[in-house]
Amino acid sequence: MSTTDTRVAPATLRTTTGREAGRWVAARCREMPGLTTATVLTTVAGAALQVLPVLLLGRVVDGVVGGEDRSVLVTIGVLIGAAALLGAAATAVSTYLIGRLGADLLARLREGAVRAVLGMPSARIEQVGRGDVLSRVGDDVAVISKGIRTAVPTVFSAGVLVVIATLGMFGLDWRLGLAGAGALPAYALALRWYLPRSAPLYRKQRVAQADRAQAFISGLNGIDTVRAYRLENAFREKVTTESWRVRELGIEVFRFFGRFVGRENRAEFIGLVLILVVGYALLETDAASLGEVSAAPLLFHRLFTPLGAIMFTFDEAQKSGASLTRLVGVLGESAEERLVGDESVPAARAGAYPVTVEGLTFRYPGSEEPVLRDVDLTIPAGGSLALVGATGAGKTTLAALIAGIGTPEAGSVRIGTTDLADLDEAGARALVSILTQETHVFSGPLADDLRLSAPGASDAELREALRTVGAEGWVSALPDGLDTLVGEGGERLDVTKVAQIALARLVLGRAPVVVLDESTAEAGSEGAAELERAVVAACAGRTTLFVAHRLTQAMAADRIAVLDAGRVVEQGTHEELVALGGRYARLWRAWREGS
């Protein structure tokens, strides 16, 4: 069972600090020394070659004033042209290398994040919500990808150019360099005002987008229930509220950035005025040449473009930085070392296993009252038990714990002699398979979909599994049989066929214990009858726990347990419980009258 304690874990995925994210980037760059070195060298060379024409222009001014020979001026002009061409070439190569380095870093980050999510305990994913997970591996990756294409090359190249140009001003005259540096306090004040406010604001924006995604996804996943209970307006209002929150934050971010740009323009004005005043004073006292005094403001003006580029892309860079901290945070989440289905996970030995639940108590994080209270259950090896109860009785929670999802507050779940608390999720899944009503078809050939639970299965074994669940007929009628594309962009399958595919995966998985949580709930009455027969066939010879959606499922089980407010209040066979005249008998009578 997962070692993640959901009782104390935060209800959102981890978000790391900017410093930790920077260390992750630096560590990955050290793993690619050749590409990293080439990127830095070409960027520095490109910046130096862009500054050189301005310095040479100052030399031209001095040459004209001093009456230099025309050939000298022509030579300087040729050097200016050559520097411009070489600078453009170096900048182009630098931009390509920065993009390539960024793409490699993004690929490693994306792969690591997906690996971390796949290794994350199921209970943790359910706790934080799928919206947060999807926004990180989807939206945040998209934001970083855009930043790598736009902001990162601009900020890095412009930053190097600013350093080279500043050194060039000090090279002309240290007093001119100090005059230009006089603008630094204004820039620093602008950044000091901006940086502490920007990162939290962008993180707040990303969280709002995740909440909007969660609201939208929760409505889509339960669309049939939403329609059945006429909750469309409530969900529409919830999505609208979250969408307006995202909109308001977007406007707030735009206004905030506009105020920052105004402060940046003020710093530019201060620096240019200081250089012109100091340059005039130096020229009047013959402390500097006209060429030096002319080149200094041109160099500082040359900084306007890279500084402006940094400022105007800082918005995108900050968004990318916020997304980076969220993705690197995912890498720091507690994850299993082994994934479900890894070759290192041994298959369960053949044979049926009993299931024993003793003193099981569970409460969700932040909840005062337990969902389950001191539950005791036993399912004999190869036997079946149906859980029956009203909504909120704790059936799904108990089924999840028996499947090894979540950490109980007290008590234990044993499969045979093995306590699930001693297993990671991959080990638990080798013993217990769980199938819920949220079945899914993966995009690609049907055979690949089926082999997810048995990678080495032959076509004959796939057909046998399909035959077991009653799906061989319609699969044979598909255009390309097992090679037919299903899922998004492929053959459309109704809910009954999707459930049969999930049951076929269950057959191929060969776990000795099966948990079925309302797995036929989405099918219509005709499809449900067909699926119930498929369920019986798929679970033959296995220890099975049903969360009964229909009482016909409960009738088919060897024994029935009735849950109420997290406690088992009745246990027995169908006939025994009907004769008892208790809760189950009342449910049975109401169901028969309703049907």
Automatic annotation (TrEMBL):
Residues 38-319 form the ABC transmembrane type-1 domain. The keyword S-adenosyl-L-methionine does not apply. Residues 355-590 form the ABC transporter domain. The keyword Nucleus does not apply. Keywords: ATP-binding, Cell inner membrane, Cell membrane, Membrane, Nucleotide-binding, Transmembrane, Transmembrane helix, Transport. It is a multi-pass membrane protein. It holds the Pfam family ABC_membrane. InterPro entries: AAA+_ATPase (IPR003593), ABC1_TM_dom (IPR011527), ABC1_TM_sf (IPR036640), ABC_transporter-like_ATP-bd (IPR003439), P-loop_NTPase (IPR027417), Type_1_exporter (IPR039421). It is found in: Cell membrane. GO terms for cellular component: plasma membrane. It comes from the Bacteria. PANTHER family: ATP-BINDING CASSETTE SUB-FAMILY B, ATP-BINDING CASSETTE SUB-FAMILY B MEMBER 6. This is Multidrug ABC transporter permease. It comes from Streptomyces variegatus.
